[in-house]
Each structure stands twice: as structure tokens, then as C-alpha cells.
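Kindly inspect this chain:
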Amino acid sequence: MPGPGPHTMYALGAGVGLMRLSRGRFGPHHCLFYAANAFLGPDLGSFAEWLTSSVLGFGRPFGSFAMDVVHHPFYYVLVLGLPLSFFYAWLSGVLLRRGLLDTVSGVPLNRRQCFLLLSAGSLSHFFLDHLFEENGHSSMYSWVLSTGWWKGRAPINPEAVVVIGILCTCLIGGFIYINRKGADMPA
């Protein structure tokens, strides 16, 4: 399973392609929420496991339980789909009102659209995960591993988490900067 960087690049690349092909029907809001769910979505359980065991020093069983429940193409949507679709619909309105992202219609995403983007992001995440599935036994796989199943403690270097976090934040921040309201966009 690839790390958050490849998930983000794949989802934003596919989203930008859809933005170009759809001629405005798939906009920056769609792309951002699709990419957010392809990037971290089903790996929230993995992040919770890492956070509770590495950073906080307690609660590894809670993190493992979260990983077992959420890291699944359909359980992620069934467990977190409704609350996250409400949150994303609200966030879409905030981003639109503050001028951080623009839409052709000027209307924020509704809950149904957010739920569908969440589902698409989850499926996209697992599509990319299954392309790189090696069951975690090769040295190359261990090097790129940031999510998934492992024996013992997760082989995540804290410095790598910070660097990848900064790079993904810059990538998403750049996307928002390019697609902010009032930005000149080429035809």
C-alpha cells in the first residue's frame, strides 16, 4: 500500500483531469473532497493507531480497533460516510463564502454530492492500495509502507511522517491557491 503522497498525487491528478474534461461540472470542491478521501480517508484508522501508540504512548488497542473497522472500502463509507458528508457540505459552504475555492455555479456541494465523493475517494484509495499489494514482506514495500497491516509496531519514521505531511499539505494548499475564488484560470 503506498503512502499518503502517492494517494494525494493520484487523486488530485485524476480530479484535475475530471475538472478539465467536465468543463466545470466537476470543480475544485469536488476535486478537493475526492482527494481528501482518497488520501487519508480509509487510513484514518492507521493514523489513529500510529497516533495513539507512537505520539500519545497509550491506546494502541483503540487505534488497532479503529484500523480494523475503518480500513475497508465499504466499512469506511458505512461508518463515517454520513457524518463526514455533513462536515464536507458545511466546509464547502465555508470555503465558498471565504473565497478560498471557486465554483462555476457559486453553490456549495450538498450532502449527497459529498457522500458520493467520499465513496469514490474510498474506492480510489483501495484501487491504488491493491496495485501495490505485496503483503508487506519486501524491503521496498516496508520502505514505502505508511498504512496497512503489519506485525508489531508500525515501521513509520516520525521524521518521514512530518516531511510527507508537509509535502501533502503544500500540494493541497497549492491546489487551493490555484483554484481560489477570483484566480485567473486558463481556458
Notes: The CA atoms of residues 17 and 34 lie 13 Å apart. The chain has one domain: 4-178.
